[in-house]
Amino acid sequence: MSTFVAALLNSLDIGMLLFVIASGLTIVFGVLGVLNFAHGALYMLGAYFALTAVRWIELPFWAALVIVPFAVAILAAAVERLALRRIYARHPTQALLLTFAFLLILNDAVRMIWGPGYQIIDPPRALTGTFVLAGAVYPLYSLFVIASGAAVGLAVWLLFSRTLIGKRIRAAALDRDMALAVGIDVPRLYTLVFAFGAWLAAFGGALAAPMRALGPAMGDRIIIESFIIVVIGGLGSFPGALLGALILGALHGFGGRWFPQFDIVWPYVGMALVLLLRPHGLLGRSA
Amino acid sequence: MTGRGAARRVTLLALLAVLAAWPWLAPYFAIFLMTEILILGLFAASFNLLFGYTGLLSFGHAAYFGTGAYVAALLLRDMAPPFLAVLAAAAVGAAVVALVIGWFSVRLTEVYFAMLTLAFGMMVYALVHQWRGLTGGSDGVAGFPLTAPLPGVAVNIADPVNYYYLTLILVAVSAYVLHRITVSPFGLILRSLRENSERASFAGVPVRRYRLAAFVVSGLFSGLAGALFAPFNRIAVPEMAHWTQSAEPVLMTILGGSQYFFGPFLGAGVFLLLRQWITSYTQEWMFFLGVILAFLVVFLPRGLLGLFDRWLGGRS
Amino acid sequence: MRPPPLLDVRDLRRNFGSFAAVDGVTLSVQPGEVTALIGANGAGKTTFYNLISGRLRPTGGSIFYRGRDITGTPPHSITRMGIARSFQITNIFDQLRVIENVQVALVIRQGKGTRWWRRAARDEDLRLQAGELLERLGLSGLAMARAGTLSHGDKRLVELAIVLATDPQLVLLDEPTAGMTPEETHAVVDLIARLAETGPQTFFLTEHDMDVVFGLARRVFVMHRGRLLAEGSPDEIRANPEVRNAYLGEEVY
């Protein structure tokens, strides 16, 4: 029983973290049609900005968690205006290549600024403890990750379903020309959505910083797992990102506990299965 | 039209002459550099059969390159058959892996395809990395002998000059075969898929089957490149199957120009020279590569050969 | 009595969510008879074509081609069985030469798709047949041009050439004269009339231009809101009060 609960909690904290990150990827794709290869690098940037904020500026972790995502979002908005915007009209693989260039730049920029070694951030004092559930000892911070993921997910869902800006974004995602015709400022909306995707990635990064070692390649695995999540859930589908993230979390949490030697292969097996049965993902729109 | 074709032929012959004389013309270290350019040029050209000709962006080509490298290294370590047999087996092994991965991947297109190939490529990397009993994990496979090319042909390919010539011959032959494919009826169908796969299917083309065929051919030559690369480095390591290795042919092809058959080869040359030059100043050469790639995608989507073409066109 | 129909569509349906784009259409096309499908925008003509050519799967009903059930067959197989189509928005291979556009279809038809060593440009069969076809459509002078650089009217002709190169028995043309100048329209109508008279192909077209329809077709079907409203000779359709009400009204008078 206690191992089961531990595996479940483990699945949930990995799953909710991945959900926050992958939802940014899927929203940007759904609206802009751009698959952001640098999304994992933005996650990494979130973690390193948090490191700087906590260690060198000596901000409390809570403040970093609030400020860092906005800093990364502003950076992303600038990049969207300067470069990405020029190639929306082209073949979608061009945007993939451009964001891949961003990935190369960011990976090495992090190496230059923060050095190639691993770094660690301590969780805030209020969350350093552990708690016991059904006989399993568990770090309190994991619970915080699960709760934050759920809160962000709920907020994003409300934003898209209940607010005017959310409606405009959905309109632009459905039909860009129609949205332009009814007077929506689509270019500005695109900048906003790209920045928001970056915000989610960076929030994930800052949130993950106290429980994962920071290294210059930390975004690489995340971007691949995010890709797998959106393939499983359906590209562009927000509920799909949640479902995919939970599935991937469970594969890690449970698969990793009982078949650790296959840990790295499980996600691919899951993805291959989904593709065989539903090529556009579990909750994706099929053509 | 014919004037241009003749000019191209003369350029190609001159290039081949320079390559044939390279060990006498260039300093010793440049033999290694050119061997690597040729091998990675072949890798990029086989990637471009899929990207430039069939319109599919694969981000997982290291899977076939790495398979070729490992099959070659393991065969040499455990059985030491003639070297050309090793290369053939490695290429076929890579083609089989490409058949399996391609069978899943060609169901989707564009960014979906790119992601799928990336993910499957990382699966191959993970397998190579984790299957320590066979592959030696992150230590890789090393310490294998380099055998004679064919039984009775006593050429010592451990000599860098001989290995260079072996590579030159195989890459030239492969490039010729790839080129024939691109101008063949089969190649015409591939180009039609790049242009407009819907129209192609309404012209009677079974789209997936042709995409898969291109995928397997591309995997075959990528495997051959990998099988040349591991003995050249005297080691096969998991990094040869890593996605950063997959990124190299993508970058080289964009750099040289995906619309041109020799674009990937030119791109490989420029890429490796740039790396040589920039890494003599800094470790973070990928940063500069990223800047160059971003610039190319936004301002020069047709690559260096496209630029050259425009310059030629502007003058005449 | 009439010969067996070339195309026989029975109770064909296609829903998009709760909207029935094609709502139980039954019709047949006789070999050698130029047939037209007319109807207002959104009447379901293009959806109907997409169902026959395999681009969409029907929600219900069946499609028989020369007595064979082809419902749910993929586009490339349908094309190879002898049904070829053009699209409302020109659909060609922009970066390929005009002659290569045609050769794509010829390679498949001649079963040469697996030839990977011979140069396509040196294949006499491919060259001659493509050349002949281009000549018939008056495109010979443009054979070596990149298809994307052509005028709108010429691009539509290139698409027609691709369609004919598949050696079809049944040709579906979705608004073949859309966006053409009056001169180009005239030339295309002449061309189709000539092909219909001489060739083995049967033409089945949709059109907005009633002059085109009544000049070419011997049999006309009228679609209205996903259903078949009427069928008959051009004269019968012109005289049909229901059709006038639903559709022809403004355009005839």
Quick rundown:
The complex is a heterotrimer of chains A (287), B (316) and C (253). With 316 residues, chain B is mainly α. Helices cover 77% and strands 1% of the residues of chain B.
- Quaternary status of these chains? heterotrimer
Taking the alpha carbons of the first and last residues of chain A, their distance comes to 44 Å
Class by alpha and beta content of chain C: alpha/beta
Please tally the helical runs of chain A, counting DSSP H or I stretches of 4 or more residues.
11
Which pair of chains has the greatest number of interface residues, and how are they split between the two chains?
Answer: A-B, 42 and 36 residues
How widely separated are the two ends of chain C? Answer: 37 Å
Query: In percent terms, what proportion of residues of chain A is strand?
Result: under 5%
Shape of chain C: globular
Secondary-structure element string of chain A: HHHHEEHHHHHHH
Give the strand tally of chain C: 10
Please bin the fraction of helical residues of chain A.
Answer: over 70%
**What is the total tally of β strands of chain A?**
2
- The number of helices of chain C is 9
Order of helices and strands of chain C: EEEHEEHEHHHEHEHEEHH
State the domain count of chain C.
2
Q: Estimate what percentage of residues of chain C fall within beta strands.
A: 15-25%
Give the CATH superfamily of the largest domain in chain C.
Answer: P-loop containing nucleotide triphosphate hydrolases
